[in-house]
Amino acid sequence: MIHSLSVPALDYSQVTVQLGGNVVLRGLSLTIESGEWVVLRGPNGGGKSTLIRLALGLVGVTEGRVLVYGYSPHQTRRLTGYVPQHGTVKPGFPIQVGALVMQGAMPRGVWWPGVSVQAKQAARQALAAVDMHDAESSRFDMLSGGERQRVLLARAIAGRPQLLLLDEPLAGVDKQSQATILSLLGERDPGITVLMADHDSAEAGVICDRCVALEGGRASEASGSAYGLIVERASS
After folding, report:
1. Could you give phi then psi for residue 107, rounded to 5 degrees?
2. I need a labelling partner for 200 at 20 to 30 A (CA). Which of 2, 28, 108, 225 fits?
3. Backbone phi, then psi, for 19, in 5-degree steps?
């Protein structure tokens, strides 16, 4: 599948999502152009994760439409790299870092012994990009929280995606890991689009292309001060 730069990377049109009887998003419209880095801001439970999961096809719309490069999310999964809010590898699961990152470099449905030389090389390059090249043989569950998050980002970029979906990748990680993640995103190839949920990182709000605030299930352009007002109202 070849996508055109003239088509938005993400197009949410009048999206309403109801989960468990609760309306999470209500008539939301948002367009993200190819190559943009957009940070989602808003209170916990405000719909940031839902917006990201919609782009992956993991959540369906109740009303409206979501397009990824002009196609349904299910048709564009191979163009997408994803870092979940909480790691998908269960604590204590004895997988090596290199094997975990190679999951992102291999075509879907292909697994051992179908690991190619190219996939191994892509995994090593991704680990080097997040400054974790020395951890290839380490067990994932033995790493610190910040190191785990960098490895999950390496897995997301190993397949050379055009769209990165990051669900609070800076939450609960050390300053060095935060700096590494933000530096990698800032230096990405110009055509790579980033949609990133973030709770309170001032640095991300400064260096991204724009911030979008979620409140009441709707989206609006935001600054750091606007985000502060949203949190204040939500907690009052």
Report:
1. -60, 145
2. 28
3. -125, 125
CB 6 within 8 A of CB 178: no
Q: What is the pLDDT, as a whole number, of residue 200?
A: 72
Calpha distance 62→84 (Å, rounded)? 23
For residue 203, what pLDDT is reported? 80
- Strand partners for 39: 196, 211
Torsion sign over Cα 124, 129, 134, 138 = negative
Q: What's residue 3's pLDDT?
A: 57
Token representation of residue 70:
């002009």
Q: What is the DSSP letter of 74?
A: G
Retrieve residue 187's tokens.
Answer: 């230096």
Phi, psi of 20 (to 5 degrees): 60, 35
Read off the pLDDT of residues 74-88 as tens digits, 9 standing for 90 and up. 999 999 999 998 655
> CA 52, CA 38: separation in Å to the nearest integer?
12
Task: Show me where the domains of the chain are located.
Answer: 10-235
Q: Indicate the pTM of the whole model.
A: 0.87
**Which 3 state secondary structure label does DSSP give 179?**
helix
What are the pLDDT digits (tens) for 21-39?
899 999 999 999 999 999 9
Give the count of alpha carbons within 13 A of 120, CB side only: 7
Cβ neighbours around 44 below 10 Å, total: 11
Arch. (CATH architecture) of 10-235: 3-Layer(aba) Sandwich (3.40)
- In order of 23, 24, 61, 163, 216, the CA distances from 20 in angstroms are 8, 10, 13, 29, 17
Burial of 85 (0-12, 13-18, 19+ CB in 10 A): middle
